[in-house]
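Bumping with the actual sequence this time:
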Amino acid sequence: MDMFEKAARIKLRFDTGKGMLAVEDLFDLPLASKTGKTNLDDLARSLYKQLKSGEDISFVEADKASDPTVQLRFDIVKFVIDTKLEENRQASKERDRAEQKQKIMALIADKQDEALKGKSLEDLQAELAKL
């Protein structure tokens, strides 16, 4: 069973400054915030601290295992962060390609203008008559 199916089956929610959020609500959160708004980075840090605190963990007593839902919450938040970072990288690549394409198209237009400027008056008049 994958982590999203587990989350759906146990109706996993995330306690945040915005209130309780469902898994799908995480995709609406920003990666980070300088104004203190609820964000994925802060949520991941909080869950990571819960995982690493180890206060309720015992390696001897089986009933003192860490809460598996904290790990599930952390894994889901980390997945959302990784997904959004990859989407941002892809969008940046697309923007770069579009900018490069615009530059090339502008240079082509300049070259075409130069070619037209280099033609004689008779050639230009003949081309105008064709249009």
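The tokens above came from a reply further down the thread. The mean pLDDT is 89.
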